[in-house]
Amino acid sequence: MERGGDDEWSAWLDYDGDDGPSVLEGSSVDHEQPSMEEGNGDPEQPTQKDTRGRSKRNDITKMVSEGKKLEVEYNNYGQHWGKGAMTKLTRIGAWVRTNIPLRDITWPRVSQDLKNQLWEHIKAAFDVPDTDKKLTISKSRDRWKDWKNTLTEGIFTFKDVALQLLEKPPKLYEKIIDLQEWREFVASRLSPEFEVKRKKAQKSRSCNVYSHRTG
Predict the structure, then answer these.
(1) For residues 10 and 51, is the Cβ–Cβ distance under 8 A?
(2) Residue 156 lies in a domain
(3) Which of 1-15, 129-143, 148-162, 185-199 has the lowest mean pLDDT?
(4) How many domains in the chain?
(5) Reduced to 3 states, what is the DSSP secondary structure of residue 208?
(6) CA-to-CA distance for 180 and 162, rounded, in angstroms?
(7) Parallel, antiparallel or unpaired: strands 73-74 and 80-81
(8) b/e string for 43-62 if b means 16 or more Cβ within 10 A?
(9) What is the extent of the structural domain holding 124?
(10) Is residue 2 part of a domain?
(11) Cβ distance 99 to 114 under 8 Å?
(12) Is the pLDDT of residue 44 over 90?
């Protein structure tokens, strides 16, 4: 089946790497609105559509500026849950997308300094114990990998049907992904070496009888 229509492109642009909105009761969320980029007039040609922007989470920014922190609840297994946890995950996702590079790096090679900066960023906004650092770093790894996987799926969706759409970062992220870094990331994903790695991973996943995700 042919892929790459406007709806699919918009779905990729709309994805923000998080588990959905986590708006606090009574709070408001402002959205950055990307500008519309006109196509070439060909109705069959996929184009980037205007989409909702990334959440700025001004409510959290205001709370931090007032010296307040959001409480995070934990269950008997040490896993966080509830609105505080979802908001924390959203903030982690936004931080790693902005501060950790896409290209030529794996999570073990992310500097400890960056991981410490992330932890301080989270502690400034959330009432969490020091024992939460390990879990926070682990969730950061997951968020970063999920985001890269989403971008990779977009690349493979459009590489054969609308390669020109990959010349620039998706609109939703064009302000946080450097153009050169994006082009190098695309090139790395379209390399023969990554194709071998991708097929190996797909084969491994196809052998899984059940898909599990734990908190």
Answers:
(1) yes
(2) yes
(3) 1-15
(4) 1
(5) coil
(6) 20
(7) antiparallel
(8) eeebbbbebebbbebebbee
(9) 58-207
(10) no
(11) yes
(12) no
